Amino acid sequence: MRVLVTGGAGFIGSHLAHALVEAGHDVVVLDNLRRGRRAAVPIAAEFIEGDIRHPDTVLTATSGCEVVFHLAAQSNVMGAMDDVDYSFTSNVAGTLNVLHAAAECGVRRVVFASSREAYGEPEQLPVSEDAPLVARNLYGASKIAAEAYCEAWRGTAGLDTVVLRFANVYGPGDSGRVIPLWLARAVRGEDLELYGGAQVLDFVHVDVAVKALIAAMKPGVQGPINVGSGQGTALRDLAARILALTGARSRLVLRPPRGPEVVRFVADVRRMRSVLGIEPPADSLAGLDAMVDDLVHS
Predict the structure, then answer these.
(1) Are 1 and 66 in contact (CB under 8 A)?
(2) What are the tens digits of pLDDT across the range 82-129?
(3) CATH number for position 162
(4) Distance (Å, whole) CA 254 – CA 233
(5) Axis crossing angle, helix 235-246 with helix 178-187, rounded to the nearest 10
(6) Are 10 and 29 in contact (CB under 8 A)?
(7) Which residue from 98, 105, 106, 150 has the highest number of Cβ atoms inside 10 Å of its Cβ?
(8) Which candidate in 86, 119, 139, 195 is catalytic?
C-alpha cells in the first residue's frame, strides 16, 4: 500500500516511516526539515522536501496514496507561543491543505496526530476522550481547530479521518523536550531545571505511538483515541530516576512555572486497549535505559 507520512523526518514520523517500510508499504515522506532530519528518513522511502503550508506540494505528495498519516506540525508548546503565525499556518491551514489533497486524490483514510494539549488543564484524572477540549495554550488551540477540520471534512466530503491524541511521547531521536533535555544535561553533569514542580504527566514510548498509528489504518477504527501509558509520573520522580540511571550528581533546580504549560495529565487508555488492541507497558519509563545507553556510548 502506498502511504504518505507528513512530518516523516521528525521524531515520531521517522519511527513510523521505518515501521511502515519494514511492513512492506510504499512510503512517501513529506517534511520541510524545520525540525526533522533527512538522515532519519528510511532509505527505501520516497522523500519530498516541502511544506504542508503549500497546497501544490501537498497535492503532489498525496497523489496515489491510500492512507495519509498527518504528523507535520509546530509541535512545541513554547515554540507555538514564540511564533504564532507559523503555528497557525502549519497546524491549522496546513492540516486543511492535507485534508483537501486527500479528498481530491481519493485517499482512503487520514490518521491525524493530535495532542493531549487539546484538553488543557483537566478537571479530573485520568482524562477520557469525552472530556471537554479547553486549550490552555496556542498549541492546544491549533490542535482543536485541526481536529474540527478533520471532523468537518469527514461529515461533508466523506473523507475517512481518525484522530489520535498523544500523551508525552519519548524515545530515541527525540529532542527539545523534558526527557531528552534532562538526559543530556545529566550525562554532562549539569543541573536539571524544573519549571514549577507540581507536574504529573503521562509518558509513553514512541514504539507504542507507532503501533497506535498503524492500528488506526484499519477500516472501521473511529476516534478520537488517547494514546498514552495510563500512568502519571511526577516530574520530580522522573528527575530522580534519570539521575539514578546516569549516576549523575546534578541538582534539580526549581524555576518559576511557565503559564501556558499544562501541569497535570494522565490518559484514560481504555479506548486504546479496546479499539486499537494496544496494551501499554507496565513501566511507562522502561525505555529510559536504552536512551541512557545511547547517550553514554555516543
Answers:
(1) yes
(2) 778 888 999 999 999 999 999 999 999 999 999 999 999 999 999 999
(3) 3.40.50.720
(4) 17
(5) 40
(6) no
(7) 98
(8) 139
